[in-house]
Amino acid sequence: MTLEKIKVKDKEINYSLKRSRKARKMRLTIYCDGTLTATIPQRFSSAVLEQFIIEKSPWIFKKIDYFEKFGQKEFWKNNPGDFEKYKNQALLLAQEKVRHFNQFYGFNCTKISVRNQKTRWGSCSRRGNLSFNYKIIHLPEHLANYIIVHEICHLGEFNHSARFWQLVEKTIPEYKKLRREARRL
Question: Exposed, middle or buried, 56 (CB in 10 Å: 0-12/13-18/19+)?
Answer without folding.
Answer: middle
